[in-house]
Amino acid sequence: MNRTWEEAGWEQLAPGVARRRLPGWDATAGLVHGPSAVLMVDAGATLREGAQLRQQAEEMLGRRVTHLALTHPHFDHVLGAAAFAGTQVYGAIRMDLMLGGRRARQALRDDAVRHGVDGETATEAAEMLLRPDHLVSGEMTVPLGDGRDVVLVNVGPGHSGHDLAVLVPGLGGGPSVVFCGDLVEESGEPQAGPDAIPTQWPAALDRLLDLGGEDALYVPGHGAVVDAGFLRAQRDDLAARFGVS
Fold first, then answer.
1. Burial of 242 from C-beta contacts in 10 A (0-12 / 13-18 / 19+)
2. What is the 3-state secondary structure (H, E, C) of the chain?
């Protein structure tokens, strides 16, 4: 494949770290690669979207994706997961139950259809959905080789009951990168669905700020990359919106 990452729709954030804004819902997919392993952050809204993400990553890097981290159990971030069969899948604790039961899969399928995914496409993705086999209750370090470690952190609840952040510490003077999932949104107001825990959402953003610090790049679940100041402002807006400190 002769295309550059940018020509394939990926934005380089730091050495070994990239992300792509997916069409439709502007959801983010992330990629972190080291010498011995490759981690994808979120899987897109359909099997086709997930397969495209995996194919692009593997063609660009010349090796397979080995790990998949799911930031939260909403259709536009997880329904492409079956395209990552054979990888190690990570999620916040109890997310395996959220994605494993028949009712949960039906709810994901129905939510996708309400948002415009074709019914047959949504049904196939929900029926084949992969559940996390590595569950994060606090922090978990995933080594990718040669000093490139990724830290998975259960920072929720907030946007959902099972919010996972992905911290990529900076290397060689580069910035740290924090994939925030939908705890942070830039292209619209943060969405609070029926599984949101509004009273704990501002505290989850405080934990994200503690993780990344002042100089990190923060990657929202939807929208452009933001800085610590944006997170603080969104944290205060959420606190005012939900009446919490």
1. middle
2. CCCCCCCCCEEEEECCEEEEECCCCCEEEEEEECCCCEEEECCCCCHHHHHHHHHHHHHHHCCCCCEEECCCCCHHHHCCHHHHCCCEEEEECCHHHHHHCHHHHHHHHHHHHHCCCCHHHHHHHHHCCCCCCEEECCEEEEECCCCCEEEEEECCCCCCCCCEEEEECCCCCCCCEEECHHHCECCCCCCCCCCCCHHHHHHHHHHHHHHHCCCCEEECCECCCECHHHHHHHHHHHHHHHCCC
Work out the average pLDDT over 143-153. Answer: 96
pLDDT, one tens digit per residue, over 4-56 is 889 999 999 999 999 999 999 999 999 999 999 999 999 999 999 999 999 99
Q: What percent of the chain has pLDDT over 70?
A: 99
Q: How far apart are CA 62 and CA 67, in angstroms?
A: 15
Task: Determine the pLDDT at residue 1.
Answer: 40
* Torsion sign across C-alpha atoms 183, 32, 128, 155: negative
